[in-house]
Amino acid sequence: MEPVEIAAGKYQLRPWTERDVDAARVALTDPEIMRWRAPRPPGEQHPGPEEWLTRRIGFWAEGIHACFIVMDAVSGEVLGDVSVQHIDRTCHTAEIGYWVMPKARGAGVATEAAKIASRWAFGALGLHRLTLVHAVGNPGSCRVAQRAGFALEGVMREASPNRDGIGYHDEHLHALIVTDPVP
Ligand SMILES: CC(C)(COP(=O)(O)OP(=O)(O)OC[C@H]1O[C@@H](n2cnc3c(N)ncnc32)[C@H](O)[C@@H]1OP(=O)(O)O)[C@@H](O)C(=O)NCCC(=O)NCCS
Hints:
Elements: E1 6-8, E2 11-15, H1 21-28, H2 31-35, H3 49-62, E3 66-72, E4 78-88, E5 93-100, H4 109-123, E6 129-135, H5 139-147, E7 151-161, E8 168-177
The structure holds coenzyme A.
């Protein structure tokens, strides 16, 4: 899959590059972003910023994960990240994921980024259904999902291990179908 940029009013979505190492470092040391990241296999550390960027840039070529920086279109400031991941061109599905830089939170960035990425996934990729999964204990992400039009479909019981390695937590499954009304 060829990396693309998306111009969307006050936001610009663009692929990550090696030059974004400072933004990657801020994100990877933010306790809230780290708290909700996908768990690593036992004994495997989270990658540092350089390795994380290399992987993120490489995802495009694999064709199953489009990951964008969410940028202020005027200032160029990095506001966050939005991903269309687990792209399945047979079933026409994918999953939306996001996080926002600490200083950019509370201004609608995640909601808009999810909407922009969804429009692109339905249009450019021709997908039919997008899912969005978050921990039940992350009410901010639940609100973003609802504001972006992703209906709550249910609770996935004990779907993800706790970060301390002890026990599991429930997750919400939200989804948006291409024919759903977008708020
Ligand atoms: C959760 C997160 C993505 C929200 O991003 P954001 O850009 O601040 O969200 P928005 O400004 O678009 O907010 C949308 C709605 O969610 C609400 N919201 C945002 N953060 C919230 C929080 N921590 N608790 C409760 N509600 C919250 C907002 O008030 C707003 O609701 P409203 O429309 O009723 O006013 C951001 O705080 C973040 O990156 N957190 C750390 C990583 C993370 O949780 N990623 C998601 C993993 S699934």
